[in-house]
Specification:
The chain is mainly beta. The protein has strands spanning 2-6, 9-16, 20-27, 30-33, 44-50, 56-61, 66-72, 75-79, 97-102, 105-112, 118-125, 130-133, 140-141, 145-152, 158-164, 170-176. It starts with a strand and ends with a strand.
Length: 180
């Protein structure tokens, strides 16, 4: 379950047996379903976000890759995440990802299992419809990095914080330039 205010309207993300995800919106005191999400079967770690325009986004992971959907023109649309298949740690019971829309660019941080464990951050570049790594491949190389969190500062500076299990479970923070 996750809840967010998008503008002045509360939205709730719910799941049944961690398998079916749905989004509800409170309208005039009643909770109404917001469209029908695509392919949410087998979902884990579902999260609800909103962008600057008030558009709801849902991010979850399944057995093979992250899934990202946004609500537009009365329906849910999916971003293609095929490029990220096999890179996310989909077996972890920990919260392994975070998501933000920064200056209109979807940005996903996640725990990785390929090419060295750690945290990776990718931005979805609309010009070429591809996911591009920010600041190289693995931003935080550690075997037990957990709980990545993204934040945006002044002038679009992106901050990534995470728990670094290789460093006594201390919080670590990386700073890098704005999304492309």
């Amino acid at each position: 379950v996750d809840i967010r205010y998008l503008g002045t309207t509360p939205y709730v993300l719910t799941s049944t047996n961690m398998d079916v995800v749905s989004v509800l919106k409170n309208e005039n005191g009643a909770w109404n379903t917001v469209g029908q999400l695509q392919s949410s079967s087998g979902s884990k770690s579902a999260l609800l976000y909103g962008d600057a325009s008030g558009r709801p986004w849902v991010v979850f992971r399944n057995s093979s890759r992250p899934q990202i959907q946004y609500f537009e023109n009365g329906a849910w649309a999916a971003l293609d995440t095929t490029q990220l298949k096999g890179t996310m740690d989909t077996s972890s019971v920990f919260q392994t990802m975070d998501f933000k829309v920064i200056d209109g660019v979807p940005v996903l941080a996640f725990q990785t299992i390929k090419n060295g464990k750690g945290i990776r951050v990718y931005a979805h570049c609309k010009g070429n419809q591809a996911w591009e790594p920010l600041a190289g491949q693995t931003l935080a190389a550690c075997a037990t990095c957990r709980y990545p969190q993204l934040a945006v500062g002044a002038a679009g500076t992106i901050y990534l914080s995470y728990r670094d299990g290789d460093n006594g479970n201390k919080m670590s923070v990386k700073v890098f330039a704005r999304a492309p």
